[in-house]
Amino acid sequence: MDFNLSEDLLELQKWAKNFAKEKFSEKAYTWTKNHKVPWENAKILAENGLMGMTLPIEDGGQGMSLVEAIIVMEEVAKVCPSTADMLQVGNFGAIRQLAAYGSEELKQRVLPTILAGEKLISVAMSEPNAGSAVTDLKTKARIEGDKVIINGSKVFNTHGPHNSYYVVWVNFGDSVKTCGAVLVERGAPGFTIGKTETHMSGEEHCALYFEDCEVPVGHILVPDNGFKRLFTMFNIERMGNTSRSLALAQAAFDMAVQHAKEREQFGRPLAEFQGTQWKIAEMKMKLEAGRLLLYKAATNADKGAPNPLDANMAKAYINTTAFEVAHEAVQIFGGYGYSTDYPLEYIFRRVRGWMIAGGTPEVLKNKIAEDVLGMRFSQRRPKTGGEKVVTKS
């Protein structure tokens, strides 16, 4: 069993590291502060074949493995998190649901604009009362002739004010078995984009409103009874979330190590204090353990979707430890780490968000336990009282 990257992967990693530093370092960490989308960087990514790395060649992609895409994502995210968000759009997010389940006509019309770095796409999943309880979707869709009519609302839509396409998770009926997804384009009749808001990290999001919104029936990506299919692709989105979280934690760690060597207190470098040494050791162990979980999930997936258990373990562990690593990095930097003149405070805020987006550690641990025990546990109150209902898988 060899835990080292192959020569080809090491070459890719080296290239991606140099490429990211050369192309994206100058404006890194300025995009969010200025509330701008790095469109110019998205086009640079596209020109170098990095938008659509994981998509099949027949869909305009590169046909690369998930491991290759994650290696590139890590190097880009360590330099410029906002540019890594563009990589997420072009490789791991809603684009995978479109590529996997969209009609040929729809893919031929929409995918090229995303892969060229010209337009953005996102998943519209969360609702006011359906976050972790995603099966409680209240956004309804019904088919009338050659149209799909959508009513409902979504919240926390990533890049929502700037997206051109939205993969909207809907319910065609009244149960989890009738959940599916529809592609809605900006400007569709009855579709309204809410006011722009910002997360703690500074990233923009918005609510989406559908009032008898009409889209062609050919925009149905997943019909009813397709919830498992949706989450198959969503586990790939989680890999993008997880790799960015790990990358930013690694960046924070690298900064902290360098600072510990250079910063002096009481006449000697911080690195000579045992308290600092223990922090550095703990941070390193967490990063290495997280990377092994991530690479295992990606390697087992190859060019497909990761095993849910692998994906859940990687995301739950890395999201949590990335926040812990960023916290310790800020502590090692002291007042400088808390200053907005340095990137550490942004990293600290940004990795905190990934502990919520795409599945919280708490929800993921529930799923991990279910897989290990071979049982399913309902989180809902039993209708007749008594113990929580447990079913075998």
From TrEMBL:
Single GO term (MF): acyl-CoA dehydrogenase activity
Domain Acyl-CoA dehydrogenase/oxidase C-terminal: 225-372
Residue span, Acyl-CoA oxidase/dehydrogenase middle domain: 123-213
Pfam families the UniProt entry points to: Acyl-CoA_dh_1, Acyl-CoA_dh_M, Acyl-CoA_dh_N
Source organism superkingdom: Bacteria
Keyword Flavoprotein (UniProt): yes
Keywords in alphabetical order: FAD, Flavoprotein, Oxidoreductase
Residues of the Acyl-CoA dehydrogenase/oxidase N-terminal domain: 6-118
Names of required cofactors: FAD
InterPro entries from the UniProt entry: Acyl-CoA_Oxase/DH_mid-dom, Acyl-CoA_Oxase/DH_mid-dom_sf, AcylCo_DH-like_C, AcylCo_DH/oxidase_C, AcylCoA_DH/ox_N, AcylCoA_DH/ox_N_sf, AcylCoA_DH/oxidase_NM_dom_sf
Annotated Gene3D superfamilies: Acyl-CoA dehydrogenase/oxidase, N-terminal domain, Butyryl-CoA Dehydrogenase, subunit A, domain 2, Butyryl-CoA Dehydrogenase, subunit A, domain 3
One of the GO biological process terms: butyrate catabolic process
PANTHER family referenced in this protein's UniProt entry, alphabetically: ACYL-COA DEHYDROGENASE (PTHR43884), ISOVALERYL-COA DEHYDROGENASE, MITOCHONDRIAL-RELATED (PTHR43884:SF12)
Family statement drawn from the similarity comment of this UniProt entry: Belongs to the acyl-CoA dehydrogenase family.
Stated name of the protein: Acyl-CoA dehydrogenase
Organism whose genome encodes this protein: Metabacillus sediminilitoris
